Predict the 3D structure of the following.
Amino acid sequence: MNQTRRADGSAGDVDYAKIGGTYSRFRQPDPAIAAQINRALGNARAVLNVGAGAGSYEPADRDVTAVEPSASMRAQRPPHLAVAIDAVAEDLPFEDDSFDASMASVTVHQWSDLERGLAEMRRVTRGPVVLLVCDPASMMDYWLSDYIPEVREMEAKRFPPIERITAALGGSVTVDPVPVPLDCKDGFNEAYYGRPEAFLDADARLACSSWSLVPEAAVERFVRHLSDDLESGRWDRKFGHLRSQPFFNGPLRLVISQAT
């Protein structure tokens, strides 16, 4: 279903003009995840980044062209990155086979037409198409769902099934788990699996867009519940082992489509 672009340019279920201001602070690229993405890009020199946002995971040692429809997100890109082009995944303004590889990081759930967007990425890419996504089937396997299931249920609804993504890409596709490190720099929800106190920061929550889509009453209940359990030690008695667990294998996946 097509969606009308907002004044900011974004066209998904979230208005990044309202919530995007914290992204550059909390959504820094994590080195371990960046390394996995770079390996998937292979020896590509010319890389397209679709739904590039503030520039997370854009490789610094390649010739990157960025596409981002949200003006507020484009404005947060640091000066050492290329200026992003105002365009959407479903209508990429490039000739066929323009890039050695293309990538999209946690953005496909914001597209108005997933199949068309992936077809466009495949059209303009000579080599691999690399997608960082979440598997909705694994969304509830995380302690956060015990405290605010509304957020996890919302995320599960937003992300397309992995099978739909692989079917749309066609050809040779692999799906690899993406382990999240304990000190993860990228503030998506799983990044704080062993640092629950981070969820008490309203700005940190807002940097993960699903929090803006649930009732405020649910968020207030969550803050009270988690605060009480941290103070009493209940959280640590049940989940404290996560504070020293080096990695968390959650719903994050890397989908890699090779050219046929």
User: Anything to note?
Assistant: The mean pLDDT is 91. The CA atoms of residues 51 and 165 lie 16 Å apart.
